[in-house]
Amino acid sequence: MNIEDRIERQAHSRGYYVNDGGELMSFSGKRMNPHTGTTGYRYFKMSKHGKRCSVHRLQAYQKFGDSLYDTGIVVRHLDGNPLNNRPENINIGTQSQNMMDRPQHIRMSHALLATSKARKYNREEVKAHFNGSYKKTMEYFGITSKGTLHFILNGSTPKQVISA
Prior knowledge:
Helix content: 25-40%
Number of domains: 2
CATH class of the largest domain: Alpha Beta
Number of strands: 7
Strand content: 5-15%
CATH topology of the largest domain: Homing Intron 3 (I-Ppo) Encoded Endonuclease, Chain A
CATH architecture of the largest domain: Alpha-Beta Complex
Shape: elongated
Largest sheet: 3 strands, antiparallel
Distance between the termini: 47 Å
Order of helices and strands: HEEEEEHEEHHHHHH
């Protein structure tokens, strides 16, 4: 996609902006009431059938310009609140940096959820049985994903996660 085609750039060129309070403003200077999507982020449409423009991405475009579109760059809410679109709360960075913006207890709960499939299996038993064949090991233990088996064999899960 061409940078000129990016929705944030179009919205900004048409006069939409996010003020210092994180509120969306129209080209006429009136405060707008954006929608809140199922992901928790606010967005608006410039026309009835137009594409969605996320308020936090418009704020990021105002602050960082076209560098918002660099490869691997995401918009970060530094406090983890997707409704807080104040300029001091919006930054850009990598997805890894974005994940580190979350409080540690939330990062840990997401990591534990991601490893929930590995908790079904005794890691030591799986490792002892593994003879170089993913297929045979998966069939023996009823593991349905090569990724899960790889994680069991090579992952670094905290002990409380695998002691099921």
